[in-house]
User: What shape does this take?
Amino acid sequence: MPRTGRLSTRDAALAAGLFAGFVVFFAVTGAVLDWPTGDAWGTAILIALGAGAAPIALRLLNFLQESRSVIDVAGMRIDFSAGRLASPRRRPRCPTTSSPPASRSTTARPGRWSAPRARPAPPPWSWST
Assistant: This one.
């Protein structure tokens, strides 16, 4: 499935799952190890929110790069059009076939891609004496 700039259900579920996973992790460590306690819970929730927002932020950056956007905020300019996409998911896939390439199959002799033939037996006579 090609990934587009749209936020998919999978991305939203991943973000929610990461957030819930971190909250459960911090709840377990709070019960077992007594950390986080008191004011540290605010930091723990911020870590969980940051981890949950990561898939959405990455999807947003991917969309900005694909649309070749330019962002200008308070004198700082971020130009996504200068970047080059190097993700392996975007490379075109080569079709896998068992047939020979078209350029060779049209110019080759019929039966070229069949099993090799046995060499004919040498004649019983020879020119050398």
Q: What stands out?
A: The chain is about 45% helix and 5% strand.
